[in-house]
Design goal:
Layout: H1 4-7, H2 13-26, E1 31-37, E2 43-51, E3 53-59, H3 67-84, E4 88-89, E5 92-93, H4 94-97, E6 101-106, H5 111-119, H6 128-134, H7 157-166, H8 186-196, E7 200-208, E8 212-214, H9 225-236, E9 239-241, H10 252-260, E10 264-269, H11 281-297
Parallel strand pairs: 3-6, 3-7, 7-10, 8-9
Antiparallel strand pairs: 1-2, 2-6, 4-5, 8-10
Helix pairs in contact: 2-3, 3-11, 9-11
Length: 298
């Protein structure tokens, strides 16, 4: 298992980099590349391994939702160990399963937002004063410029923007401000560029909380997406749902479904109030690990 000192702690930049470094020390076949850089100059890495059809996992779009990163790094460690030791994992011989699969993982889409949520506005450097002026830094979901990354993708963005304004969200904020135009932010541009440059057969965006799975976007329902979603729901005990209000449009999953007509899912891990406590990690992981594995190989 990964070093518990860093695994069972808020996943700020220091702890996250330690865990990623530990994975590379343990599994030399794991690859890493930088897909973008945040406003504060933090790299947005992607980890990958395998051969064949590509599946994407992306975590921590929102500042307080850093437990998603820990769940996926925990899963990645156990999965890679089973491959390297040629063991079974959740009843599957993973070495054989990954002869035709590549898993790509973006552990933290919004590194500045996570840092602000955990360590305060001072961690945002030149953006510190503007964040303090906005307030609610300990409830921070946006990036360093007060843009909600999951409202910044070009899928129903204009309708979402009108709804934001109707709800009084018309300037940078801790959450739900979608920016001045789609892909205005380096984090959303990095994710969009990554997907345009790779032929992912499906994508997963991990958020918290609610124990729900979102699978469609408006009229866009890719072939087999409902069937895949039902399988994931059965394996996890989560509920297949459709978002409403300010949760509709502008999101990564929405954009992926509309742009590529391929299945994409938002997985809302856990239940409670963000940020979910670190004590929830093992329970969430044990409940989801079979679903996570099947989501790659199905």
């Amino acid at each position: 298992m990964l070093n518990q000192k860093y695994l069972y702690a808020p996943n700020d930049e220091h702890n996250r980099n330690y865990l990623i470094g530990e994975l590379f020390s343990k599994y030399p076949f794991l690859k890493k590349e930088c897909i973008g850089v945040s406003h504060c100059g933090r790299e947005i890495p992607m980890l990958s391994f395998g051969t064949g059809k590509k599946v994407l996992f992306a975590c921590a779009f929102h500042g307080m939702e850093w437990l998603t990163t820990l769940v996926i790094l925990r899963f990645l460690d156990e999965l890679l160990e089973s491959i390297s030791k040629r063991n079974f994992f959740c009843g599957i011989r993973t070495e054989n399963a990954f002869h035709n699969r590549t898993l790509c993982v973006v552990p933290c889409v919004n590194p500045d937002g996570v840092e602000i949520s955990i360590n305060g506005a001072e961690s945002a450097g030149e953006y510190c004063d503007s964040i303090k002026a906005i307030g609610s830094e300990k409830r921070w979901q946006a990036n360093a410029t007060g843009v909600d990354i999951n409202h910044n993708f070009n899928a129903g963005w204009k309708a979402l923007k009108a709804l934001e304004i109707k709800n009084g969200i018309n300037a940078p904020a801790p959450t739900r401000f979608g920016g001045k135009f789609p892909e205005s932010e380096p984090e959303s541009r990095a994710m969009a560029r990554l997907c345009r440059n790779n032929d992912f057969i499906r994508a997963f965006a991990f958020h918290s909380q609610g124990e729900e799975i979102y699978w469609s976007f408006g009229e866009y329902m890719p072939e087999n997406a409902r069937l895949q979603g039902e399988l994931l729901a059965e394996l996890s005990g989560y509920t297949m749902s459709e978002p409403d209000g300010l949760a509709v449009g502008g999101g990564f999953k929405d954009w992926f479904v509309e742009t590529f007509n391929s299945p994409a899912f938002t997985i809302e891990i856990g239940n409670g109030k963000n940020p979910l406590p670190i004590s929830d990690l093992e329970g969430i992981y044990e409940r989801l690990k079979q679903m996570l594995l099947i989501s790659i190989v199905m």
